Predict the structure.
Amino acid sequence: MNLSDIDPADPTRDCSRCPRLVAFRDRHRAAHPDWHNAPVPSFGAGDARLLIVGLAPGLKGANCTGRPFTGDYAGDLLYATLLKFGLAEGRYRERADDGLQLKGVRITNAVRCVPPENKPEPSEVKSCRPFLIAELASLTQLKAILALGTLAHTQVLATLGLRQTAYKFAHQAQHVLPNGLVLADSYHCSRYNTNTGRLTTEMFEAVFRGLLPVLA
């Protein structure tokens, strides 16, 4: 597939590709009319050198605030790390209007709508893939992709038409892809992973420390 031929449009607010996600979204629109409750757009400028790909919006995080990784613990760790390494500026305040700016970074999700129990079905991941294809096509200065978790890793490879067995997920791994991009892996910065010790702050920061030479 030629990425340059893909329509770069984001999903519309009432995207109907995934019936289960639409029904879940509609229930929360009725219960919380002040929340975003719609596909969450990417965050960051189009001249990004690094694209960070997560799983899906959190129910009370991005689904509420309308910005990826904003309003939940995963965002606390992600944005603190970006600020520490000079990849963001300002102050993260868990809301989309906090004025935080990314520097050479863009953040998106493999699935743009919040799924029940934070578990998208395979058909929903596939249905949302055109938006990641469009995302990659639009980022002409991209040098690296950071996949947060196994699903994001496999979705990036599927988007690029690459074999999963050739690039196995491993925390802090870096894979040089045929198109010259570097695909880096990290365990997802979720509260579950940090509470269980699977991912520590030091481990997460090591991923970004390893990416800085790639982004230079």
